[in-house]
Structure formats: structure tokens, C-alpha cells
Amino acid sequence: MNGVEAFLLGRALMKIGEQAMPQPKSGPTGSVRSVVVVLGDVVSHPGTTVGEIAARTGLPQSQVSTSVARLEQAGSVDTEPDPADRRRRLIRPAAEPSARVAEVRATTIDDALAAALAGPGGTPPDPETVRQVTEALDLLARTLTPSVTAR
Hints:
Elements: H1 3-20, H2 33-44, H3 50-57, H4 61-74, E1 77-82, E2 85-93, H5 99-106, H6 110-117, H7 127-144
Antiparallel strand pairs: 1-2
């Protein structure tokens, strides 16, 4: 595999993950990519600020702010004023996962993966291929995924 193939595989896996993500029952919907990136950064750097997240992730500060607001509304993060600078807010993972977090963590990629592996005309994928790909994805997740997404 070369770098281009790895990049394209990563994009395909992101699409499968996004398709598997349940939409919130209320509140804003849309792409979850930046929200997941921001949450991962907050878990790795508790007590961080929007500006620090933007610097580490390369996301625009406005996109980080929007993601933090969505995460706070979903009960995934808590914010508090920064004692050193009351204009800033410190962001931490929520002490207790919300119902939304539990819903997202409980949702599998099975249907989205089956759709991605479907044959011509949407024919169901070969069950052995699904099993092999699932095993490969489990190995990749255990080996390459940062601890922020630990189950």
C-alpha cells in the first residue's frame, strides 16, 4: 500500500463511520467529523481551550467553537471559566457519559459496512468478506487508534 492508497482508505473509513453515526434526535445535525476530532482532542487534553484545540487540530477556531457547543449540548463535555483569564473557557470531558454518548458508542458500523461492501446493483456482500474486513478493522482499531476512542 502506498500513501495515496492509505489516504483513500482513510477517507472511505471516515465515510463509513459518518454513515453509521446516529443523528441526534434534537439539536444541530450535519457532519460529525470535526465534532469527533474535537472530542478526541479534549479527551487527550482535558482542561483545554478552544484556541488550543484549534492550534493542535488545524481546525478553524469557529469550527472548534461550534463543535464544543454541540458536544456540550450532547453532554459529552463540560466547560468552566478559566481562572487565569475569565474570557476563556476550559473544556473537559463530561464526568458521566450522556444518553447521546451512550447511543453513539452502542451503534455499530455493521449496516454502513455492508452497504460499502455491497456488490453491483446493491447485491449483499459475501459474508466471508464481511467477516474478514470486520476482523481487519478490529485489528486496525486496536493497533492504530489513539486511546481517546477506547471503548
